[in-house]
Amino acid sequence: MSQLTTTSGNPIADNQNSITAGARGPVLLQDYQLLEKLAHQNRERIPERAVHAKGSAAYGELEITHDISKYTKASVLQKGEKTRLILRFSTVAGEAGAADAERDVRGFAIKFYTKEGNWDLVGNNTPVFFVKDAYKFPDFIHTQKRDPRSHLRSSDAAWDFWTLNPETLHQVTILMSDRGLPASYRHMHGFGSHTYSLINAKGERFWVKFHFKTRQGIKNLTNKEAADIVANDRESHQRDLFENIEKGNFPKWDFKIQIMSEKEANELSFNPFDLTKTWSHKDFPLIDVGVMTLNENPENYFNEVEQAAFSPSNIVPGISFSPDKMLQARIFSYPDAQRYRIGTHYAQLGVNRPINEVNTYTVGGAMNNGMYKVESKKYYEPNSYDGPKEDKKYLEPDLALGDVVAARFDHRLDSDDYFSQPKALFDLMNEAQKQALFSNIADSMDGVSDMVKERALNLFAKISPEYASGVKDALAKRA
Q1: Residue 275 burial class via C-beta count within 10 angstroms: exposed 0-12, middle 13-18, buried 19 and up
Q2: What does UniProt list as catalytic (predicted)?
Q3: Any idea which residues carry the catalytic annotation?
C-alpha cells in the first residue's frame, strides 16, 4: 500500500481528523493539509461553483414578529425589523446544466442585507450533513462528482465512501427518504444546519440552530415522478419558483430557532457542534422568531444569481460561530472560493454589496470599482491620520474550551520588553557602525512628519540615550 502524501510529497499521518484545540475545540490554522485540501477543492473546477453549481434565487424580506432580545443583540433579529434578502436554492452534486428534479441535498443560502453589514446563513434543506470534519469534505465531494477516467457519476464511489464513514448515515437516510427529492424549492424546509451562537446585550452567549419551515407544506417526488419530469423539463424547480413569484404567489417560511445554554451544551451526552446530529425538539423546542417571504425575481440571472457570493464568515454583532469543525472550515473555504471564482473584490458586485458604509484597508487587487475609498496616508493600520479604527465594544465574550479559552489575546502582553535586545545589539557596535546606523536612519526619514520622528526618537531613547541623540544629530544635519 502506498503512503498518502501532500502535494509536496510529505507523508500524511492522519487524513481523517482536523487538528483542534481539544476534542471539541475549534480548528487550528496550523493544519496545513486541511487548508490545502479546501483551497485545492475550490480550484478544481472553473468557472462554475465547485459544489451547488445549479441554482435558482429570489429576493425577499425577513420580518421579525417575536421578541428574542434576551438571546441576541443583533439588530436584524429584533422584533419589528424587516430586512431585504436574497435566497439561493441549489442542488449539491450536479453541474450547472444538471436537472433540478434529482435526488440530492438542496442548498438553502440566504444573504441578509442588514444595517450592520451582510449576514449570510449558508445552509441546506436538511438539518445535518454527511461529514462532521471538513478534513473529509473534499474527499466526499469527489465521490459526488464524475470519475476522472470515465467522466461518469459513480454510485459505487458514493456508497463506498458512505459505508467507510458511518457518520454519513443520518444524512444518507434523509437523502434516500421521501424528502431526498423535493417537488420544488417552495415545498421544502431550510436549515442553518450548523450550530451558531447568539450573544445578547449583557454579553451572554447561547448556542442556536436556525430553522425555516415552509408554509407551502412539504411535497416530494418519487423516483418515477422525477424521471418523468426530467424527461420533459430539466429546469422544473427554477420554472416553478420564477413563475410563482411572477404571478404574485409569494412563498413563505416560518423562521424559528432552537436555543441551548453553554451549561446545557457541557452536560449534553453528545457533541452539540457535530453537524451529523440534530438537537431534540423535546429538549430544545422550536422558538418562533418571524417569517421569510420571497417576492421578487432577479432581473439578470448571471449578475444576481451566478455571481451571488455567500459565506458563513459574514456575520453581524450578536450572531457568531461555534466550535463546529465544518463551520470553522467553511469560514475560510467559502470566501476563498468566491475570490477564485468571481474575483478579488467580489463583495463590491451589486448582489453582494452591503447596504451600510464599508471602511476597509483591503483595497488592492482586481475589481475595486471605487466602493472602497482610499484617502492619503490612510491605506494601512494602525496609522496616525484618523483612518478607520477598531472598536472593542464589538468583542465577543471568551469561549471556554476545557481548561483554556478562545479569545483575542494581546500578543504584546507576552513580553513588553522591546528594548533590551536592540540595546544589546547596539552596544556591540563600534563607533563607525553606530554612526552608519544614525546616518541610515536619518536618510530613511526624509519626508517623514515631525510627529513620527519624535515618536521614533522616544523609542530609541528607551533603547539607549546615545541611540536617540545620535539619530537626532543626524537628522539635524539634514534639516
Answers
A1: buried
A2: 52, 124
A3: 52, 124
Per-residue model confidence as pLDDT tens digits over 379-406? 888 888 888 888 888 888 988 888 888 8
Which residues have CB under 8 Å from 283's CB, separation 6+? none
Q: Which CATH class is domain 32-348?
A: mainly beta
For residue 323, cis peptide bond before it (omega within 30 degrees of 0): no
Look up residue 253 and give its three cell numbers.
417560511
**Residue 334 counted as an annotated binding residue:** yes
- Residue 148: CB atoms within 10 Å: 7
Q: Where in the chain is the domain with CATH 2.40.180.10?
A: 32-348
pLDDT per residue as tens digits for the range 6-57: 666 667 878 888 888 888 888 887 787 888 788 878 876 547 888 998 999 9
Residue 288: CB atoms within 10 Å: 13
Q: Are 345 and 369 in contact (CB under 8 A)?
A: yes
Half-sphere exposure of 412 (CA within 13 A, CB side): 2
401: Cα within 13 Å, side-chain hemisphere: 18
Which position has the higher pLDDT, 53 or 451? 451
| The residue to which cell 502535494 is assigned | 7
H or E element in which residue 291 lies: strand 287-296
Q: Is 459 helix (H, G, I), strand (E, B) or coil?
A: helix
**Strand pairing partners for 63?**
82, 291
Q: Which residues contact 228 (CB under 8 A, 6 or more apart)?
A: none
C-alpha–C-alpha distance, residues 316 and 373, integer Å: 22
C-alpha cell at 475: 537628522
| Tally of CB atoms within 10 A around 102 | 19
Q: Count the neighbouring beta carbons within 10 Å of the beta carbon of residue 184.
A: 23
CA–CA dist 30, 19 (Å, integer): 8
Beta carbons of 317 and 278 less than 8 angstroms apart: no
